[in-house]
Write a structure and sequence with these properties.
Length: 237
């Protein structure tokens, strides 16, 4: 039987539903209705579950905020889209208020929750945003590619530094081309908290160790990211 409760963390209320199941771990999922769904074994104390939710509150708030402004399938900025001052956009799980300034020099910068776009005209704001997201994502993914490789090597895994490609995909978050030493990452990860991109990198690098999605594969993933299932659930939304 489901058990609905509330928990206040940092002044914000989290609505959560508990379902008792025969599971080993406490599992968490944020659904589009903004409610956190928890499954836990019959003997797991409520206080422990509340502590778990509080510990993961950053992930939870990011997911709730993101879904509230873009729905369950957020979209990347496109050059043809029309934007206006005061719009809310999401970048790596953080929400920003959009400010558009007409300027002969184009670019974008983020500061204190505001994403300022400098564009030659208002209808070019989408193009500037699209370029900004692409460049920031390329830089961040480049750093993640290197750090993930180093993480695996530190654990004794003989993995290559992957040839990284980035493109927007509709059906998968990433893919590993083992024989070519290449991974492809979905640019739409820029709309989710950074930890989700970290998880996808770990997932794809784990295929250099175990090719399939067997228990041995997920054992590798869990070794590198014990809480990876939180990211799995976030990316289902």
């Amino acid at each position: 039987m489901a058990d609905e409760r509330t928990l206040t963390v940092d002044g914000r209320e989290i609505r959560w539903v508990l379902t008792r199941k025969k599971v080993k771990n406490v599992n968490l999922r944020v659904k589009p209705d903004g409610i956190v769904y928890i499954s836990a074994g019959a003997r797991v104390p409520i206080k422990f579950i509340e502590g778990f939710i509080a510990e993961k509150s950053g992930f939870i708030f990011s997911a709730i905020d993101r879904m509230s402004i873009r729905g369950s399938r957020p979209e990347l900025p496109k050059a043809e889209n029309i934007y206006k001052n005061g719009d809310t956009v999401s970048y790596f799980g953080e929400n920003y208020t959009l400010r558009i300034i007409i300027s002969p020099s184009e670019g974008a910068e983020e500061e204190n929750g505001v994403l300022t776009v400098y564009a030659k005209s208002g209808d070019r704001a989408g193009k500037v945003l699209e370029k900004f997201y692409a460049e920031k994502t390329r830089q961040f993914f480049g750093r993640l590619n290197l750090s993930t490789c180093e993480m695996f090597r530190a654990k004794g895994y003989d993995v290559p530094l992957a040839d990284l490609q980035i493109r927007e995909m509709r059906s998968r978050w990433g893919s590993c081309h083992y024989a070519k030493g290449k991974i492809v990452m979905n640019s739409r990860l820029a709309l989710y908290p950074e930890v989700c991109a970290r998880y996808v990198f770990i997932h794809e690098y784990a295929h250099f160790v175990v090719l399939d999605h067997s228990a041995a594969f997920y054992a590798v993933v869990k070794q590198l990211m014990p809480d990876y299932k939180i990211c799995v659930n976030m990316l289902k939304n």
